[in-house]
Amino acid sequence: MSHGLPTQPAEAFTKRRRAIAAQLGAPALLFSGVARPQNYPANIYPFRPDSHFLYLTGAWIEHAAVFVDGARDILFMPAPDPDDAVWHGPGPGWADMQRATGVSEIRDIEQLPQFLESAPAPATLPAVDSTTRFRQGRMLKRSWAEPGAPTELDERDAALGDAMVASRMIHDAAAIEQLRVAAQATVAAHTAGMAATKPGMRESDIRAAMEASLLARDMTTAYGSIVTVHGEILHSRGYDNPIAAGDLLLADVGASHCGWAGDVTRTWPVSGKFSATQRTIYEIVLASQLAAIEQVKPGARYRDIHLAAGLVLARGLVDEGILKGDPEGLVERGAHALFFVHGLGHMIGLDVHDMEDLGDRAGYAPGRQRSSQFGLCFLRLDRDLQAGMAVTIEPGFYQVPALLEPGSQLTAPFDADGSLDRTKLAQFADVRGIRIEDDVLVTAGGNEVLTRALAKQADQVEAMVGFG
Predict the structure, then answer these.
(1) Cα separation, 213 vs 188, whole angstroms
(2) Pseudo-torsion of CA 321, 324, 326, 331, nearest 10°?
(3) What is the pLDDT of residues 391-426, one digit of tens each?
(4) Rounded Cα gap, residues 305 and 263, in angstroms
(5) Neighbouring C-alpha atoms within 13 Å toward the C-beta of 191
(6) DSSP strand E in 287-398: where?
(7) Domains in the chain, start-ordered, CATH in brackets?
(8) Torsion of the alpha carbons at 448, 454, 458 and 461, rounded to the nearest 10
(9) pLDDT tens across 331-382, in order?
(10) Is the dihedral of CA 382, 384, 389, 390 positive or negative?
(11) Where would I find the Aminopeptidase P N-terminal domain in this sequence (predicted)?
């Protein structure tokens, strides 16, 4: 990203805006947001534009908004500030920004309130940061502008949300190219992490090696990295544990390239060699993932792929004696969720969990609702796949003490009928958590694993550990 100018062709943004205008049939106004302060106002987090704004303009600028109305697009942005040239260096002129975004014209953001007085009332989507959301709501007379009011979409804003989902869900060629670059950088980061791993180091050392690989490409992470020997902690945020021979290291790290996300997880043995029990569970998880990827194709229902992955996992656990009974019946009852609690994955794009700001409006097809069953209720995506969609496939196996505690409401039915063999499970105590995740593009003929260059067969993974 150079001086806030887009890196994709202007034609791509123009085409996206035209698609939104055609679907909505009414004007829309989307805001870029502002940088958020950390511990005092002048010490801010790195700015990242709102994803809907970024999708339509590619412009990495604060305090901006884009008005889309038929064939007319107006980018409202701050006028050049002479102080910026002193403190931050020269930035692009308005003519440069207009050419790069393909908008019809650019106006001063200070003119926006007056412009809206005479313009057709636009639809909008609530900004993520509270400062912009409050100003936006007041300017556009939305009920959610009032403190404490719920952010509920009215009919016109809901229509814009649906139009954005329809457009962003099917990636165009420019978006796919960005995802490929993010995937390549993500693969390189994981390769660097495996190479750096040696017993006696700390989780933070491996995190540093992985994120350094991204920084060297002038990228950052798409989300907070997970690098931990406690793979049973699904969203671990600590990096202070030592790593020792016998540990498995789970790394969930993804690149952010101009806002476009990569999202990959690999699990590898710190010593460079899986124990027999670790390899057994690793192979079960890998089989689950490969079976799920094979089913990724146009027309496939993502919920069915999730359940298919769960079935492979359940069969493997039955083969090892950890679960007892008919695998299909166990999955129907949710027994596999004792060890595979989360959903199989999610859409990926400008957000690592793409469009999750719109909630289940994005992830669930009209007429579909989340299941109430434990495990299945955490599924983020229940749509029929279409060519151009990008999803993650990330089954796992975790021994979460809070879930597996004897006598808990969750495990009680399976303890009572003998479906869960705790004695057998205890033999796998050195497997805290394993997850294997790839980014997968749905194609007309099936799928393409964007992160396929990263090894995941057990022998390959072992060979990559500690060679740096």
Answers:
(1) 7
(2) -100
(3) 999 999 999 999 999 988 899 999 999 999 999 999
(4) 19
(5) 13
(6) 390-393, 396-398
(7) 10-169 (3.40.350.10), 173-464 (3.90.230.10)
(8) 180
(9) 999 999 999 999 999 999 999 999 999 999 999 999 999 999 999 999 999 9
(10) positive
(11) 8-135
